[in-house]
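Supplementary Data S3. Sequence and structure tokens for construct A.
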Amino acid sequence: MRHTLGIDVAKAKLDCALRLPEGKFRSRIVDNTVQGFEALTAWLTKHDVSDLHVCMEATGTYWEAVAEHLSDTDFTVSVVNPARIKAFGAASGVRTKTDRVDARLIAEYCVTHHPEPWQAPSAAIRELRALVARRQALDAMCTQEKNRLLVAREAVRKDIEGHLEYLNKAIIEIEDSIRKKIDNDPDLKEQREILDSIPGLGEKTIPVLLSYYGGPPRFENARQAAAFAGLDPRQHESGSSVRGKPRLSKMGHTLLRKALYMPAMVAITKTAWGRAFRDRLASAGKTPMVIIGAMMRKLIHVAFGILKSGKPFDPALHGV
């Protein structure tokens, strides 16, 4: 007798709707913190829940901690694109929009569609991802302060320069922590060396790829890996008159796409295989921005194939 738990995720709280085997619901709100997760587990135990399928939306990064906690508790966890839940609600005729109703809707979606289980990353991957995210945040703050310094008045210039000095030091320290984290894990170290064989990838991009695609394979094919980053193409066609231009779906991790933009630029301008790829698309009439997006997706495909096969980059497979 399987229970189903729908969770509407917010930054500060989790609205939980437990669907009992007979179809009735029990509701609970907990904090989106470690203490809240423990309270949720105790609540589930109180209701004699053992076989449980948990379903939640991929809302920013706020879902990751509770998904990891519940997965570590040996519950089946599914993380669903919010667009699917919205479409399911519209098809079901749901007119009310509250967190409590959304949690029940997510549980009903789980019962009806049986979404695929989500695989939690290993502890090493989680730590590496946290370090990478912190480095990206420090880079963003550093860029902001540099921009402020350009127009700063003398009264605050010294303070901004001091903050920049602190940020640069913190970036050096976090990069050292990232290197040590990878060096201390034999599997991640080997995968880093393989990814380093791809022309265009550098020491900043490789840890980002490892933090999302490293360790045991989490995707069945390269298309799923690209979709995870929001780099899959989205078509917009209807009837005989509507023929929209294909665009990136962008329904995935923003940090991954940001990390791949500059490597894609380097690949199509500085590497032989990237220039061959660019020229082939350009001869087909593709615009520069389409080519850059295609190269970002290509980098994911190549990296996924290399990590899956364990073989380094082979230029002969890419027209070089």
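Construct B, processed identically:
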Amino acid sequence: MALTVDFDAEELWLAEDPANAARPGVLSQARYGAEIAVPQLLDMLDRIGVPATFFVCGRDAERYPSVLESVASRGHEIGHHGHSHRSPHLMAREEETEELVRGLAVLREFTDRVAGYRSPSWDLSPHTLDLLVEHGFSYSSNLMDAVLPYVHAGHDLVEIPVHWTLDDAPHFWFDATSWDRTIRSAREVAEVWGEEATAIHDGGGLVTLTVHPQIIGRPGRLRMLERFLTGVRAYDDGSVWLATCGEVAGATRAAASGARS
């Protein structure tokens, strides 16, 4: 199992609509995620001994350097989540390259190695995998075509597969423009995650859980996440490995290399 945290902060709303820069009420959700939720999340992960991979937008790292310093100092992995939170499929290759390079430069101020990339909204362009190889990434975590991690055919990249079922946003996100989405209870979401994770475990696959500080970091939801992770941690038959995405990618690459030899 890999716990992943998409640290979007203000960039999530600014990429959606630059006019949100003048809406402090909207952006207050980002501040809550960065200033309240992340510190509490880090304390909880320390308490139960679970590693995480934080995928971070470069501009949000610039806004909240102390948050990134805390993530790195506590031993968690930092991955690339775009410089802004704009989707690569909306960009020409040159612009996508610039986004990738600028984000890398910022994140490398906080960590020695940025091995993984997760696109905003898991949305890739036809050029993304090529660019990741060119700029030295070892894995991508964006696609929904598998339950086991795998090495991309034609690219020296491991894919850490994801799915909306194991993401907090589809269950908890509130659409203030239409008011037509019901916010699910933490109990319901724990049940959905538990069913999916148990089935993946039984089949010997990878559970990639994706959370966002401004969403999962509400008090009741954070308590649910701690119970969920503690339950995973409590497996006593040695059949569960809690790891960062970088560790999963390394094991996948080693297994693929062994199979070829």
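The mean pLDDT is 94. The domain at 2-260 is CATH 3.20.20.370 (TIM Barrel).
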